[in-house]
């Protein structure tokens, strides 16, 4: 098995590369940061990534695209950059596979942001999608590109609609924001009411899902919800983190909604469960591990 991890220096990419490198000796990496050690590493141009040389050089069985931007607020301010990273690059990867490595299966990391504010919970893969941010739209475009390349050129692929990913190594989004504020503020204020919900999944469980899909999944431009099917409020997870940090200040919420953020999320995960998925990292253990990692950075 020859596997390529694009975006191997990012949050999910690092975990994916570590896991698959230990499992398969023929695991390659690619990203925009220079790596002077790994001989199976491809350096990408951050301003104009070209994937043709990679797929000409090695015939891969699986390509896992973990690259791209992952910030809703940034997509509102740097919309073209977000489009290039989350949609245009997917088109370039798919086209390079078509030209040089048509038997390679492509796994692209999409996002639950494609759903926007769903009308019904839990959210199923067959439900209507209606993004509320440029980030969500661009992930939607990427899924449509893969559908195009499967229908017209039979390039095998699937999209993973990841809900709220977290874990050691993530230095952005809710948990990092709360942790960072706890180090410098006596009291913490967050956006929203705190009643907004998310469906959190630890990065190790995301990698488990990827492994299951490689082994048993369908690559006819399929989509998979990647989550735990558990609705958790922003307030409760923030309080859990602060409790583990032994924070003695006050947590409050501004009541102001942040543009581009959905209100309530919880996934129907029957499709991934049918492949054998079982949660390995509980939310309580995941929070404890995250706090330990974050405190070790100090």
Write structural notes for this entry.
There is one protein chain. Strand 1, helix 1 (11-23) and strand 2 (27-31) form a beta-alpha-beta unit. 41% of the residues lie in helices and 17% in strands. The chain has helices spanning 11-23, 52-57, 72-77, 79-100, 134-153, 173-184, 203-216, 234-244, 270-273, 283-296; strands spanning 3-6, 27-31, 41-43, 62-65, 105-111, 157-162, 164-166, 188-190, 197-198, 200-202, 220-226, 232-233, 251-253. The chain is of the alpha/beta class and 298 residues long. It has one domain (3-234, 240-296): NAD(P)-binding Rossmann-like Domain (Rossmann fold, 3-Layer(aba) Sandwich), CATH 3.40.50.720. It has a seven-stranded parallel β-sheet, sandwiched between helices. Strands 7-10 form a two-stranded parallel ribbon. A two-stranded parallel ribbon has the order 8-13. The radius of gyration is 19 Å and the shape is globular. Residues 3-227 form the NAD-dependent epimerase/dehydratase domain. Pfam families: Epimerase.
What key attributes describe this structure?
single chain, 298 residues, 7-stranded parallel sheet, 10 helices, 41% helix, globular
Strand order of the largest sheet: 3-2-1-4-5-6-11
Separate helix tally: 10
Strand content: 15-25%
Give the helix proportion (percent range). Answer: 40-55%
Protein name: SDR family oxidoreductase
Family: Belongs to the NAD(P)-dependent epimerase/dehydratase family.
InterPro entries: Epimerase_deHydtase (IPR001509), NAD(P)-bd_dom_sf (IPR036291)
Organism: Chryseobacterium caseinilyticum
């Amino acid at each position: 098995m020859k596997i390529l991890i694009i975006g191997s220096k990012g949050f999910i990419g690092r975990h994916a590369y570590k896991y698959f490198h230990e499992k398969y000796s023929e695991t390659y990496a690619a990203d925009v940061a220079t790596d002077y050690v790994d001989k199976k590493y491809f350096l990408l141009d951050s301003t104009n990534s070209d994937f043709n040389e990679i797929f000409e050089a090695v015939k891969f069985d699986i390509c896992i695209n973990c690259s791209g931007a992952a910030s809703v607020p940034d997509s509102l301010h740097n919309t073209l950059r977000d489009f290039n990273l989350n949609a245009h690059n997917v088109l370039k990867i798919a086209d390079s596979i078509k030209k040089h490595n048509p038997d390679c299966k492509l796994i692209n990391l999409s996002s639950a942001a494609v759903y926007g504010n769903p009308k019904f919970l839990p959210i199923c893969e067959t439900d209507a999608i209606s993004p509320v941010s440029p980030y969500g739209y661009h992930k939607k475009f990427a899924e449509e590109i893969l559908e195009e390349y499967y229908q017209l050129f039979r390039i095998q692929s699937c999209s993973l609609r990841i809900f709220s990913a977290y874990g050691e190594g993530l230095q952005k989004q809710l948990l990092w924001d709360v942790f960072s504020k706890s180090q410098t503020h006596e009291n913490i204020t967050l956006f929203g009411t705190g009643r907004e919900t998310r469906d959190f999944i630890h990065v190790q469980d995301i990698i488990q899902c990827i492994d299951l899909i490689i082994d048993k999944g369908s690559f006819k431009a399929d989509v998979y919800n990647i989550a735990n099917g558990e609705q958790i409020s922003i307030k409760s997870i923030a309080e859990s983190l602060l409790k583990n940090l032994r924070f003695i200040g006050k947590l409050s919420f501004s009541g102001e909604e942040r543009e581009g953020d959905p209100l309530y999320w919880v996934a129907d995960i029957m499709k991934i469960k049918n492949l054998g998925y079982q949660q390995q990292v509980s939310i309580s253990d995941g929070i404890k591990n995250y706090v330990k990692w974050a405190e070790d950075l100090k």
